[in-house]
Amino acid sequence: MIYITQLIYIVNGQEKVFNEFENIAIPTLLKYNGRLTLRIRPSEDSIIERNIEKPYEIHLVEFSTQQDFDNFKQDEKRKKFLHLKEQSIKSSILIQGELL
Predict the structure, then answer these.
(1) pLDDT in tens, the chain (100 residues)
(2) What range defines the domain where residue 57 resides?
(3) Of 76, 79, 90, 97, which is least packed with CB atoms within 10 Å of its CB?
(4) Can you give the pTM of this predicted structure?
(5) Contact assessment for residue 73 and residue 25, using Cβ atoms and an 8 Å cutoff
(6) 96: nearest Cα among 34, 52, 18
(7) How many domains does the chain have?
(8) 19: domain CATH number?
């Protein structure tokens, strides 16, 4: 099992565009043995301590294999909508791990 944690920072005013992309990307996970296990939109009062900018959202995702994750990233339908991701996401941090 592959585990992905993603901190997502969006461009101000692009929340609607970001959600349009997510409405395509999230259901596509299932096609590649993936699952969104948690989607968090942190607020200032939910953070105990931080030394980085507060992300707009935090996603926890799992895939059965690395190949499934790689196939998800190459999905043709998802790739047609990457312009929405590029327009709305300022930056992101992707942390990949596996269960030991």
Answers:
(1) 999 999 999 999 999 999 999 999 999 999 999 999 999 999 999 999 999 999 999 999 999 999 999 999 999 999 999 999 999 999 999 999 988 7
(2) 10-93
(3) 76
(4) 0.90
(5) no
(6) 34
(7) 1
(8) 3.30.70.100
